[in-house]
Amino acid sequence: MSRKCHALLGLAVLALIFISTPAMAQNRPIQLALFTPVQIFPEDDAISGVRLNLIYGRNVFVTGLDLGLVNHTTTDISKGVQLGMVGLVDSDFVGWQHNSVNVTKGNFKGFQWGAVNYANYANGFQLGVVNYAVSMKGLQIGLVNIIRQGGAFPVFPIVNWSF
Question: How far is 38 from 104, CA to CA, in rounded Å?
């Protein structure tokens, strides 16, 4: 093949890479973050696999294992296991949150285990020192348990529930 053909072939491959990159940029298999924005992939990307946040990591959502000091997701539904000091979910979460502080601003389904657990709507089990749900279908066990709407008690020590 001539140099001209090699050059054209190379340009075609580069064009395909650049054309397909935006479609691939939405979902990444792994993320490593020191703190946002110092992370491998931008915060606008989703992670399906493993995310390791050494200090603070933020992405749109995580499906899989989310491990770090501060774990933050912003949109859509995060699914899997979240382990760390602080778990912040601006949208919905399905799975197990095990952080010192768990905050799910949307709907939570699963198991929250930490010193402080918060969910807008919880469907499952909260285990901690302070458990708070605006509304809930499930069980809370802790020192202070709060279910603002529809709980057996609005505030109750040791155990509270709503079915």
Answer: 24
Lookup: tokens for 131? 């458990």
The structure tokens listed for 41 are: 């992939």
Determine the Cα angle at 66 with ends 63 and 69, to 5°: 155
Whole-angstrom distance, CA of residue 87 vs CA of residue 70 = 6
Range of the structural domain that residue 135 is part of? 3-162
- pLDDT tens profile 7-62: 544 444 443 344 434 444 479 999 999 999 999 999 999 999 999 999 999 999 99
Q: What percent of the chain has pLDDT over 70?
A: 85
Inter-residue contact 68 to 88 (CB < 8 Å): no
Number of domains in the chain: 1
